Amino acid sequence: MLRLGWFSTGRGPGSRNLLKTVMHRKEQGLLDIDISFVFCNWNNEEDPNPKKEQRKMFFDLVESYGIPLITLSWKEFRPDIRKSDEAAWRAEYGKKLRELTGRYDFDLGVLAGYMLWMDDETCEAYDMINLHPALPDGPKGTWEEVIWSLIKDKADDHGVMIHICTEEWDRGAALTYCGFPIRGEGFDDLWNDIEKKIAASSLEDVIGREGTEEPLFKKIREEGTKRELPLIVSTIGLFAGGRVKIKNKTLMENGVVLDKPYDLTSEVEGSL
């Protein structure tokens, strides 16, 4: 059985849906896993807390499964150094995180909507995987930055990947990915519209004026988001089935170093 450490900020329905899906697969006997704990970087007593109700729903869900819930408020932890020395604060936070989670046995950490940058020492100490909303050779950065980069570069394709967490954020080796076109039906008219807007002013003006509500931006985001859940579940299945492992931060398949990530596009598309 694969023992997972689950890290989540628990700020919305996506976090709950991912946990529910994985647990449902476990209950069906389709995933040979156990979740040793759920760690959240909020305790839900912070103020202000715009996601308080969403997070309560997440906490209630965790407790309904009987999974130990660990919280460590990033807002309340060491405020004396958080603003003055971010690197030192992150290291101290990571030390406390490992102290709390290290009491539980787990084989693989899953960053499932975890919105805090993991510190270097924790990345070294734990084997963890994370989702990045781009193809393995695609843009780095936040999902917003990724999509604007695609639009700026007039890209033809987009995707989602799962990678190993390393000290270099979003640059660990890719394990799995899925891709999809962002041209053709449903996209071409939106490309034409944004190109006209850019020609009349600039991409920077469009970003400032419309932001994430820009129609092409929204369409790309929606298509990527709906593929994230099946990709994560399928990837966990690869580990649970013993097909792949992480050894010395290197992906292995049956004892052999993987030379490229798995393309799970067909499997993901079939689940939509």
Mind explaining what this structure looks like?
With 272 residues, the chain is of the alpha/beta class. Helices cover 43% and strands 20% of the residues. The strands form two sheets. It has an eight-stranded mixed β-sheet with strand order 3-2-1-4-5-6-7-11. Strands 8-9-10 form a three-stranded antiparallel β-sheet. Strand 9 and strand 10 form a beta hairpin. Helix 1 runs parallel beside helix 2 (52-64) and helix 6 packs across helix 9 (215-240). It is globular.
Quick take:
The protein has 272 residues and is an alpha/beta fold.
Layout of secondary structure:
Layout: E1 2-7, H1 13-27, E2 33-40, H2 52-64, E3 69-71, H3 79-82, H4 86-101, E4 108-111, H5 120-125, E5 128-132, H6 143-152, E6 157-164, E7 174-181, H7 188-200, H8 203-210, H9 215-240, E8 244-247, E9 250-253, E10 256-257, E11 262-263, H10 265-271
Parallel strand pairs: 1-2, 1-4, 2-3, 4-5, 7-11
Antiparallel strand pairs: 5-6, 6-7, 8-9, 9-10
Helix pairs in contact: 1-2, 6-9, 7-8, 9-10
